[in-house]
Design a protein that fits this description.
The protein has one domain. It is mainly alpha-helical and 73 residues long. It is built from four helices and no strands.
């Protein structure tokens, strides 16, 4: 069986369209939610809906760090 380095070398020789297709499929495989429990999926759906509906606002990492620093001071 080929190792990851050998596979990558072969993939990089493919035409751009094929590499793009493979990249898309790899990313999709990382985004699968099938490894989540029912409770985790429900929580993810709830939080996603709150963001989409504007009920909550996203917080940048910088803002989060600043808020935590203020609370710890």
């Amino acid at each position: 069986m080929a190792n990851v380095t050998e596979i990558m070398d072969n993939v990089l020789e493919l035409p751009r369209a094929d590499r793009s297709y493979l990249a898309k499929k790899l990313l999709e495989s990382l985004d699968r939610r099938d490894s989540l429990t029912v409770a985790q999926q429900s929580e993810l759906d709830r939080r996603s809906s709150e963001l989409s509906d504007g009920k909550v606002n996203p917080l940048s990492l910088e803002d989060l760090k600043r808020d935590v620093a203020k609370r710890l001071a």
